[in-house]
Amino acid sequence: MESGIKKGPYAVVTLAYWAFTLTDGALRMLVLLYLHQLGRSPLEIAGLFLFYEFFGVVTNLVGGGLAARFGLRWTLISGLVLQVLALGALGFLAEDLNLVWVMGLQSLSGVAKDLTKMSSKSFMKFLVHPEDSGGLLKVVSWLTGSKNTLKGVGFFVGGALLGGLGFAWACWAMALTLVGILAGASWLLPKAYGKAASKGSWTGWWTRDKRVLWLSLSRLALFAARDVWFVLALPLYLTAQLGWSQGRVGGFLALWVIGYGMVQALAPGWIGRRSGRPGALGLLAWTLALWAPLGWLLVHTAPGALELGIGLGLFGIVFATCSSLHSYLILAYSHGDSVAQQVGAYYSANALGRFLGTFLSGWLYQHAASHQEGMWQALVGAGVLVSLAGLGCWPLWRCERGHAAPKA
Question: What's the CA gap between 327 and 219, in Å, rounded?
């Protein structure tokens, strides 16, 4: 670990985020599989996750302001507490688990996730020495990549827990695990980080640095471009068009998420290798490169397993690099007492992008005449959104020229 990194707090934040992420991925798979066992349709289940993403938009906006007032330790611990409550309640309600209860408790878990995510990412800004910008790129990429890898592992854990313990005991086991992590984090996390010296505006984050605004808008379109075909269209296509079993689809997507996270963690090895100063132009190049795997899939109007495997692999590598560069730039651009608010607003845009992508994925696929056409329409939608994400990098570059370019 770099000498400019405060190792003790970094280890505590990382462990707490890892533990939360594992339970979040496992809970997502638990709910999906359990509701499928109860006979719920794919679109009903997708609707639950729309509500989950909507609360992420609100939580990140409000959470940044709360962190600025009470500190990042308070918001991180609050996220862990809410996840424990959501898991515990789901366990107690397992015998009478209707969609209303699931929607409410999934929303609570969504609030918990975004509080924990915003707090953990913002902590990195304060745990790395201001002059160690290369260290900032590495720790953010590692934290983000390892989180996504553990989320994929969580998919397998959720399926295993459901089969081995049943829904109720699986939820309670994860809640008890988080209680132990919560106790350690409450004791060891520093209190002062992220707390603003004075009470500022809850809505003035974007006026302080337009780079944050344009980066957020680009992030919104980028994650909508992923989810418009990945969330619903892809698994339904694999099941209905290619005849894959649900277990095979779940395992395939989980392995993709694990590989995606590993690429994110390794991304600093090639981001900015030539210039050493990653910024808006580099982000633009990586964003537009997403058209290559999308074009490959669109050329094959009815892609089979091989074509999908190649397209998904290329898309995962490029998208993971884009995401890693995004996660670094938001911290490089954020500054002063407004770090938590700027990071919170940025991840609010991220959640809004996932919400939009999830909605469009279901809408485009449902209104198609066939599974083949539904997949094609979702891929076209992804291409349009990738182009919008790239367009957002142009005004970002213009704003960046008026500031010192972030070093790496």
Answer: 10
Q: Is 78 helix (H, G, I), strand (E, B) or coil?
A: helix
pLDDT in tens, 67-106: 767 777 888 888 899 999 989 888 888 777 677 777 788 7
Q: Which two tokens stand for residue 138?
A: 């590495």
Please give the distance of CA 281 from its chain centroid, rounded to a whole number: 23
Q: Which domains does the chain have, with CATH numbers?
A: 7-189+204-400 (1.20.1250.20)
**Residue 111 confidence (pLDDT):** 86
Cα 196 to Cα 335: distance, rounded to the nearest angstrom: 11
297-339 per-position pLDDT tens digit:
988 877 888 888 898 999 999 998 998 888 888 888 877 656 7
The span from the CA of 52 to the CA of 107, in Å, is 5
SS3 state at 407: coil
Torsional sign, CA 271, 276, 277, 280: negative
- pLDDT of 178 above 80: yes
Pick the closest to residue 406 from 224, 232, 282 (CA basis). 282
User: From CA 375, how far away is CA 381, in angstroms rounded?
Assistant: 10
Q: Residue 335: which region, alpha, beta or left (left: phi > 0; alpha: psi -120 to 50)?
A: beta
SS3 state of residue 268: helix
Please name the amino acid found at residue 374. Answer: G
Euclidean distance between CA atoms 112 and 70, whole angstroms:
17
Looking at 267-370, list the stretches that DSSP marks H as alpha helix, in order from N- to C-terminal side: 280-288, 291-299, 305-333, 339-366
How far apart are alpha carbons 276 and 89 in whole angstroms?
Answer: 49
For the chain, helix (H) and strand (E) counts, in that order, are 15, 0
163: burial class by Cβ within 10 Å (0-12, 13-18, 19+)?
Answer: exposed
Beta bridge partners of 128: 5
Residues near 90 by beta carbon (within 8 Å), at least 6 away in sequence:
27, 31, 97, 101, 102, 105, 167, 171
Do residues 272 and 406 make contact, with C-beta atoms less than 8 angstroms apart? Answer: no
Instruction: Dig out the tokens for 267 from the structure.
Output: 């991304």
Residue 178 near residue 84 (C-beta atoms within 8 A): yes
Q: Determine how many CB atoms are found less than 10 A away from the CB of residue 197.
A: 8
Q: How far apart are CA 392 and CA 287, in angstroms?
A: 10
